[in-house]
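I hope you will forgive my troubling you with a question about protein structure. I am sending you one protein, given as its amino acid sequence and as whole-number tokens for its backbone shapes. Thank you for your consideration; the sequence and its tokens are set out here:
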Amino acid sequence: MRIAFLLHNAYAVGGTTRTTFTLAASLAERHDVRLVSVFRHQTTPLLEPPPQVPLAALVDHRDSAADRTDPRAAQPGVHFPAGESRAGQYHSLAEQRIIDWLAGTDADAVISTRTGLNVLLARFGPPRALRIGQEHLTHDTHPHRLRRQLRRWYPHLDALVTMTQADARAHRTGLSLPHHMVEAIPNSVPATTVPPADGTAKVVVAAGRLTRVKRYDMLIEAFARAGAQHPDWTLRIYGEGPEQNRLAADIERRGLGDRVRLMGARTPLDPEWAKGSVAAVTSAQESFGMTIVEAMRCGLPVVSTDCPHGPREIIRDGVDGLLVPRDDVRAYSAALLHLMDDQPLRTRMGAAARERATRAFAPPGRRPQVRRPAHRLAYPPQCTPTRRTPIGRGQPAPGHGRAVRHHLHPPRTRGTAPPAPHRAQSGSAPASLTSAFRSHHAVDVPPERARLPKRRYT
């Protein structure tokens, strides 16, 4: 079947781009997959796309491109939701190119990867395609005016995929979406060829964009406290961003210039993770936590704030990492010190972290088991749409989505058992997509496991 991914900018570095490339490469083993980037600002993508998957751009922002002088590029758009953080970039030219592409694509399924693009897909998606929106942010981070628009348009998607169970619940409740429409399917991370860390290096590693939400100032303070007892340890922070100068000044003020280093951006990052023994995350919030999985994949235990929403669904506290209260710098420092003090513990937890990342977040074919059913997003053959028109402002929603949901989850009278879920027949394009999509992302329910004694980090 033909599957198309719609991205904001596939030529830039970002977690969404990285995970979309990983998913596209996996699906391309069995399907005709293509990548469509709304914007292009350079000749070659900064992250290497899958070689077997074609990449096309709708709007060319390179210096020599004709799109830069198109008068529509100076006109504000009217369809992209105004509350979305990238709304200012979606001028009239970009909107028209997206709408034209959606109208002309022959894809059996379109997967959009940004909140505003999900809205455009819901409104103008191709009549016969399965329309799946991916949320790489979280419901709680969306401003109120954006949520109002999502409440209006998201019901017209066939499915909405969030990164965590907590965010799935927030979307169902906050946007009044049917339970079965929203699925939590975490991102996956491909295997690394770098030998795993062995826990002996006296290095704490952190990575991510240098922004306030990552709270690297908290990490620097916590490391200063813990490092006072371990002067031979260093902290390396990888990434770039608007907080770089402020963080550099903080490091200098604390006299930590020889122990805390801002390393800049590195691609790939796996060799840098493997040089450390502890990974550190101090975010105020995470939509998922790709750096957590990447660090665990390289054999590092992760000390993370217990922030919404991702860390708690990735880290097994006391087994492959440590979770501490989100705003407690003393507790965070104590957790770092606990691992700095105990090299065998670092080694043991690092091995558990690597096993966890391999089992739960690897692409298909490398994951030992996949146990989650694929029926909930599948179209039964008798409900496959024969016609569906794009939804414009003020137009009523089509009945197809409701018909499918009614068939998959028909109403039942009190006291009756729920009906067996429908499984689409072999060859149904939406069913095969959903199976592959879920097989790529699904996380096994972890087995019963021994846990370390509970500790209070104060």
